[in-house]
Amino acid sequence: MANDPLTAAVSDRICKHMNDDHAEAVLAYARHYGGLSGAREARMIAVAPQAMRLEVDGALVEVPFDHTLSDSEDAHRTLVAMLRSLPGKA
Q: What share of the chain is helix, strand, coil (3-state, %, to 5)?
């Protein structure tokens, strides 16, 4: 993933990739970072510098990042780090 600014098009590209190829990770974000341990279905709908937006079981949930993302590469590193920090995901 190139170091592209987090435009709407880049957000759409990240979301499509996550939903198509890493649906279990998106659900894990919802359950852990969104505080929705009983979540059954989650889709990533946007990635902005401050937070990712998820649709979880039909409801919108915003999961803030621990820092403001600078670009698409920062988004990639941050999403991977968030997943790796989950219990049992190391």
A: 40, 20, 40
Q: CATH for 8-84?
A: 3.20.180.10
Could you give phi then psi for residue 28, rounded to 5 degrees? -65, -40
The tens digit of pLDDT for each residue in 31-82 reads 999 999 999 999 999 999 999 999 999 999 999 999 999 999 999 999 999 9
What predicted TM-score, i.e. pTM, was given to this entire model? 0.91
Q: How many CB atoms lie within 10 A of CB 42?
A: 24
User: What is the rounded distance in angstroms from the CA atom of residue 29 to the CA atom of residue 27?
Assistant: 5
CB 56 within 8 A of CB 42: yes
Cβ contacts of 84 within 8 Å, gap of 6 or more: 90
Indicate if the alpha-carbon torsion angle 85, 87, 89, 90 is positive or negative. positive
Domain ranges of the chain: 8-84
